[in-house]
């Protein structure tokens, strides 16, 4: 690598070799309409190619790159529609994004003190991420679809055009239909359900198209999840496979910088190493959503502003593991290696911490406390809620015994109860 530029002759040859197969692969995932709608912001090549003197990644470049990746997964969603933003064709658009991605990765490697092989590693990692763009694009589509759980996608304009009365909307059961479509990975299930309402015949047009456009334009959750997908991809180390000539290697600094921008723009602080599924709805992110490094969030979840934080300072599993189809209410706090089973519901203002395992299909009400409490030097046992347990609002469930406190499946704990361990691992209701 020369001292003057990141774009020397050797790089340009490597770019041609690696990027050609990537463009061929991506051509299959874009319709002609999407290519026509695609608007990619360019950055002056001379500025982009500077190898020294700027220290870490330039924030303006990173913001432009992330905007272009948003545009790549949902053409027409981010950049201005003027012709000057159009890169001419898909190959031109991909090449522009590749150059920006390569430069930001290379600057991150240089900032970490690496010198040898920076060009090769940066270009390989950039092409690996772009090779994965079909999967990232599909994930973004399902994250937008998951946002249709919000009843507000039936806004005044749409309801007025459709002529639906409030009773008809209230009784339609949209949430269950969306969950079914997600489970079957078939948006046609929901579209067919909308067709049964009959309002499309009244000149309302395609309801699903309108709602997806509304989400794309005005809902931040899917955008911050796209940021997270990009940041998470840059933490991975593996062979891409599937015919890709590039390999992934973890990138220093850059994933955290992307996460910080996501937190700044959308108030969703998702650690880049958190493993997150798709078809998730981050609802009202401006109130704040936090995840930690070792956390796991499944697919099909609905998260309102909440904290999924850690308790331990050890390098271990120290953040919650959330299953599929889980709903977590506003201002809930889950701390430590809490496990939440599939399809469970955690109510607002609830706190769960310590060694807690919540089975599938549980319903935990508002303002509940569930936790383990250390007594002296003795580590407490777990709190285990079996499948289908219901916990009423305002309840306290705590375990300071060395034995696990097991709440049997299908148990129904009344509101404002106080439950602890009877000394033999079974629940005891306190006066």
Q: What does this protein look like?
A:
The protein has 431 residues and is an alpha/beta fold. Helices cover 39% and strands 15% of the residues. The protein folds into 3 domains: 9-140, no CATH class; 151-218; 291-429, UDP N-Acetylglucosamine Acyltransferase, domain 1, CATH 2.160.10.10. It has helices spanning 9-27, 32-37, 45-48, 59-73, 90-111, 118-131, 133-146, 156-162, 166-170, 174-184, 187-197, 207-218, 221-233, 254-266, and strands at residues 238-239, 247-248, 268-269, 275-276, 281-282, 289-290, 296-297, 302-303, 306-309, 321-322, 327-328, 332-335, 339-340, 345-346, 351-353, 356-358, 363-364, 369-372, 383-385, 390-391, 396-399, 405-407, 412-413, 418-421, 427-429. The chain has a 7-stranded parallel sheet with strand order 4-7-10-13-16-19-22, with no helix packed on it. It has a 7-stranded parallel sheet with strand order 5-8-11-14-17-20-23. The protein has a 7-stranded mixed sheet with strand order 9-12-15-18-21-24-25, with no helix packed on it. Helix 4 runs antiparallel to helix 5 (90-111). The chain starts with 8 loop residues before the first helix and ends with a strand.
């Amino acid at each position: 690598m020369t001292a003057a530029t990141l774009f020397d002759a050797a790089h340009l040859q490597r770019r041609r070799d690696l990027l050609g197969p990537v463009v061929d692969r991506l051509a299959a995932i874009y319709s002609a309409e999407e290519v026509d709608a695609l608007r990619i912001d360019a950055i002056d090549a001379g500025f982009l190619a500077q190898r020294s003197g700027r220290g870490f990644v330039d924030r303006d470049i990173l913001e432009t790159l992330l905007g272009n990746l948003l545009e790549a997964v949902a053409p027409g969603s981010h950049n201005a529609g003027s012709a000057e933003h159009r890169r001419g064709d898909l190959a031109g658009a991909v090449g522009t994004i590749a150059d920006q991605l390569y430069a930001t990765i290379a600057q991150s490697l240089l900032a970490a003190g690496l010198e040898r092989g920076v060009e090769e590693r940066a270009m390989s990692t950039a092409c690996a991420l772009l090779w994965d763009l079909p999967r990232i694009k599909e994930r973004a589509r399902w994250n937008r679809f998951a946002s249709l759980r919000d009843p507000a996608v039936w806004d005044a304009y749409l309801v007025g055009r459709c002529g639906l009365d409030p009773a008809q909307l209230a009784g339609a059961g949209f949430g269950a239909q969306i969950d079914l479509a997600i489970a079957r990975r078939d948006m046609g299930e929901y579209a067919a359900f909308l067709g049964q309402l009959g309002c499309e015949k009244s000149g309302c047009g395609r309801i699903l198209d309108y709602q997806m456009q509304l989400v794309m334009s005005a809902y931040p959750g899917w955008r911050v999840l796209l940021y997270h997908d990009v940041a998470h991809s840059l933490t991975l180390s593996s062979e891409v496979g599937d015919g890709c000539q590039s390999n992934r290697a973890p990138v220093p600094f850059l994933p955290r910088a992307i996460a910080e921008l996501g937190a700044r723009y959308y108030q969703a602080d998702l650690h880049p190493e958190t493993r997150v599924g798709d078809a998730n709805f981050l609802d009202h992110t401006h109130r704040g959503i936090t995840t930690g490094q070792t956390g796991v969030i499944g697919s099909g979840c609905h998260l309102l502003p909440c904290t999924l934080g850690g308790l331990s300072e050890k390098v271990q599993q120290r953040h919650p593991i959330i299953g599929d189809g889980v709903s977590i209410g506003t201002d809930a706090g889950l701390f430590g290696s809490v496990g939440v089973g599939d399809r469970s519901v955690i109510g607002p203002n609830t706190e769960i911490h310590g060694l807690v395992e919540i089975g599938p299909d549980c319903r935990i009400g508002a303002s509940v406390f569930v936790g383990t409490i250390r007594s002296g030097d003795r580590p407490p046992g777990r709190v285990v809620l079996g499948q289908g347990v219901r916990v009423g609002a305002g309840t306290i469930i705590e375990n300071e015994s060395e034995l696990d406190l097991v709440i049997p499946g299908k148990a129904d704990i009344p509101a404002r109860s106080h439950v602890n361990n009877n000394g033999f691992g079974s629940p005891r209701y306190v006066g």
